[in-house]
From TrEMBL:
Organism: Linum trigynum
Superkingdom per UniProt: Eukaryota
UniProt protein name: Reverse transcriptase
């Protein structure tokens, strides 16, 4: 959206409508705004106050996943691999076929990613 008051008011109205229809509330303490470098500091503060959100230079994570990955995919997603490995380690003593282990690994990996998405961050 453009960094103007009328568009922020539209976003605020959409969030209010979402809250009314879903029964869920947007947590302003977990919500962040980022702006183009061309937006003046005074305008940033005005719009952040209107939406009751904090301003950040860039977002660390979105839906539990990093927003900036960079060159190293291992570094960006290593925590997911570690979480899956920890779960798989518990299964070492269980008797599962290769296909059963594959299905179990996929389910756990998807659950880890989904929990990150639902929690907003991990």
């Amino acid at each position: 959206m453009r960094a103007i008051k009328s568009e922020c008011e539209k976003v605020k109205a959409i969030l209010c409508l979402y809250e009314a229809e879903s029964g869920q509330q947007v947590n302003p303490h977990k919500s962040e705004l980022s702006f183009s470098p061309n937006v003046r500091q005074g305008r940033r503060k005005e719009l952040a106050d209107l939406l009751n959100m904090k301003v950040v230079d860039h977002h660390q994570k979105y839906l539990g996943l990093p927003t900036i990955i960079g060159r190293s995919k291992k570094q960006a997603f290593g925590y997911l691999v570690d979480q899956v490995r920890a779960k798989v380690k518990v299964w070492k003593g269980k008797l599962l076929s290769v296909a059963g282990k594959e299905v179990l690994i996929k389910v756990v990996a998807q659950a880890q990613m989904l929990s990150g998405c639902l929690m907003g961050s991990t």
